[in-house]
């Protein structure tokens, strides 16, 4: 396995008081600090204690059917990460932001600012926002078409990268004698004229420590994978079996050469929801406690939204009704496919499906001892299905603490995971080289 | 004077290493930490040491003619304030954001997030973005017309307030027994249908500690004053003489009843750039040192942008060329008028005008001893020209430290200014009542 020689990475995907649908109802989250910034700063510190590469906050631009269930989105992730940056030193800081409902100039600025504030720890999970609820908050009558969203995302990222590149890294001179603040020859007007965006530039921010945020992507549709191969440096993905993981990994890898990229430039991190206990039996019992706390009516609403079919009146112990083909779905195509296949392959009733999805909305759940979890991660990694993992604690902070304090040391003992940070930036943690501005002329060679 | 009985307020308007055009070249700013978040966190802490009401960061969405001169806008202000929030406990946190180049949903969310992160200390300085350079970064060929920008701002703020109000303050229930996270009857869909915006809502954030950010405004054109009277809770303004200050104050106050508002609901804070030294002579000499460091060519570019006339080839020791009437200006009308009147009234050459503007771009500069500065502030306050001041240190951190450590104690000894915080929120510091959601039914009275 060539893969076994690549470094191993760990991202903590954080959400409210945990990923499990019913996390906030379980005694392990007694405090339920969903509105408390200190809760999130402490999570950043716990992840840093475990030497993890990064923490990640997803986001959506609507409340949708979750009003009664969970406060996914109390904090706008970039402002939240700025506050976490101030309470940590090393941990990478990844935020979701939408290409469909932002202005490229504002978004590029915001991430440049987070990168400055954190000393080079910013990452952007690029999403195209596939729900109707979001579309309604931005003047649309329906979700913009899947293909159109990806076309916009493509132009958006191309432009954002140019904005980040508009200041060369040594443009700021700060020479009090000559009065030169910045060298105008190293600050570039873009006059960008795309199909959707016209932006003169430059960005109103000198080049940030990383040059630009780490680019992350998480959609696994055909357009999503192509987009990832073109732009992404890390991919978060939901893969339920080792075989599917290997297939996805290889699929992505094979798309890279078309864009002049190599496997080293893209890290694949499947999601894992770990239930950790001293024995396997206790871990399974813990998972069951959470499953038992799921409120079926909220879960039905969420499943309806995910599948684009109204299930709110559907019998819980019946199988799913016939679902539309994926080609008819304009929202998240890959998640739709994953859930549809899961329900059909395992012949699940709606109640069983809800239980399976409760932990991580389609991500793999694994209940076991710390050793068993480490084994599982190692086997995927060594079998070429992952460069690391997107750890999704079902409850917080306990679920993250257990992973950091009980699983990470085993990975470290096995020589799989770092025992201390060796880099200061998020790109550095992920083993990626610094990025130079595309507008930097090859000055040294030219004079050689 | 009724005014003398109102509490006295102080905001620190912070910019890079100081407001003075040439601040970064002066030995007092030897470190020039314009790219260092710790510099700004320390400024927040200094302001908090002085028990100031708030700190404020202006913003512009373009580099424009400032590339060589100053890094006004390294940090996006809301992310910067989130990082400052994490390093402070009481100080209010005010950021400029544009109604012309943001989506209402995103902007409302961002400020709600800052208000949550800071425990109720967020403020929004509402601007309509009056420069061509900004328009070019958002797909426009010219500045959108002044009147159109204010129409958009009006609808934007109306909608933003509804978004903040879409969650009643007690909507989050968090009852693990019943499984009710939030009470859907207290979370309101808006179905907002304006001329420019259609937004379904609700906001994807529970009501923040202040309900909404403090609303601040800083344009003094006719439209600007009307907008302030309708929405603003604090106004930053450039007034060069006591008489002009009194006139502006009275003008604003007289506009309030039309909107059902009283003078207590709006605080007027004229800007002041203080040069502080042990003697008046030393303070004047200090100011002169800064004036001498202004680079005329950069200043000419900035003046050209401000006046909408190309002055880059104009003789420094000649008077200004004839200027267009204010009706022809689509950018910042009030600043244009202020500079035009200053140049004409005092018959200034371009070089003299640049010197006068160097400290605060049209704001009043005052050089004196701590006592003299306290006298000046007190006299404006008692004469009904101000509810407090927008202090614009010409260099940082020294200029802020001198104000906090030398002027504030005098104001405190005179019983003018608080000696400790008595409130926990920015609205509280400014003596404003909490805001209830407009969608909260009068439940208690109804049952009485």
Automatic annotation (TrEMBL), chains A, B:
Keywords: Flavoprotein, FMN, Monooxygenase, Oxidoreductase
Pfam family, any one: Bac_luciferase
Luciferase-like domain ranges (all copies): 31-385
GO MF term (any one): oxidoreductase activity, acting on paired donors, with incorporation or reduction of molecular oxygen
Classification via Gene3D superfamilies: Luciferase-like domain (3.20.20.30)
InterPro entries linked to this entry: Diverse_substr_monoxygenases, Luciferase-like_dom, Luciferase-like_sf, NTA_MOA
Protein family membership: Belongs to the NtaA/SnaA/DszA monooxygenase family.
Signal peptide: none
Superkingdom field: Bacteria
Binding site for FMN: 59, 96, 146, 150, 220-221
Protein name: LLM class flavin-dependent oxidoreductase
Higher taxonomy: Bacteria, Bacillati, Actinomycetota, Actinomycetes, Mycobacteriales
């Amino acid at each position: 396995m060539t893969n076994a020689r690549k470094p191993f990475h760990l991202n903590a995907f954080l959400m409210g008081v945990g990923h499990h649908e019913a996390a906030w109802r379980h005694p392990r989250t007694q405090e339920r600090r969903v509105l408390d910034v200190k809760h999130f700063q402490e999570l950043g510190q716990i992840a840093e204690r475990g030497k993890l590469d990064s923490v990640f906050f997803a986001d959506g631009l609507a409340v949708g059917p979750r009003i009664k269930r969970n406060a996914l989105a109390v904090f706008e992730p970039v402002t939240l990460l700025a506050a976490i940056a101030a309470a940590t030193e090393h941990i990478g800081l990844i935020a979701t932001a939408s290409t469909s409902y932002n202005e490229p100039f504002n978004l590029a600025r915001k991430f440049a600012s987070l990168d400055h504030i954190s000393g080079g720890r910013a990452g952007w999970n690029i999403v195209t926002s596939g729900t109707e609820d979001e579309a309604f908050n931005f003047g649309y009558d329906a979700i913009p078409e899947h293909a159109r969203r990806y076309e916009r995302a493509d132009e958006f990222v191309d432009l954002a990268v140019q904005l980040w590149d508009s200041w060369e890294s040594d443009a700021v001179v700060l020479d009090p004698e000559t009065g030169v603040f910045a060298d105008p020859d190293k600050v570039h007007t873009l006059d960008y004229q795309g199909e959707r965006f016209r932006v003169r530039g430059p960005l109103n921010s000198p080049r940030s420590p990383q040059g630009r945020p780490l680019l992350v992507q998480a959609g696994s549709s055909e357009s999503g994978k192509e987009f990832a191969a073109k732009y992404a440096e890390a991919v978060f993905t939901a893969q339920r079996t080792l075989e599917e993981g290997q297939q996805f990994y290889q699929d992505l890898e094979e798309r890279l050469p078309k864009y002049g990229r190599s496997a080293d430039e893209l890290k694949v991190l499947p999601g894992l929801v770990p239930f950790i206990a001293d024995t396997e039996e206790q871990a399974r019992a813990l998972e069951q406690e959470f499953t038992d706390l799921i409120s079926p009516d909220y879960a039905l609403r969420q499943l309806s939204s995910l599948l684009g079919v109204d299930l709110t009146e559907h019998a819980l112990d019946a199988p799913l009704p016939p679902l539309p083909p994926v080609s008819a779905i304009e929202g998240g195509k890959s998640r739709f496919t994953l859930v549809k296949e899961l329900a059909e392959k395992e012949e699940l009733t709606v109640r069983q499906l809800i239980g399976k999805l409760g932990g991580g909305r389609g991500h793999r759940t694994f209940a076991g001892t710390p050793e068993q979890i480490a084994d599982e991660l190692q086997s995927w990694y060594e079998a070429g299905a992952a460069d690391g993992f997107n750890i999704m604690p079902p409850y917080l902070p306990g679920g993250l603490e257990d992973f950091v304090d009980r699983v990470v040391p085993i990975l470290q003992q096995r020589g799989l995971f770092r025992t201390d940070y060796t880099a200061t930036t998020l790109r550095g943690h992920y083993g990626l080289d610094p990025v130079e501005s595309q507008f930097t002329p090859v000055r040294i060679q030219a004079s050689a």
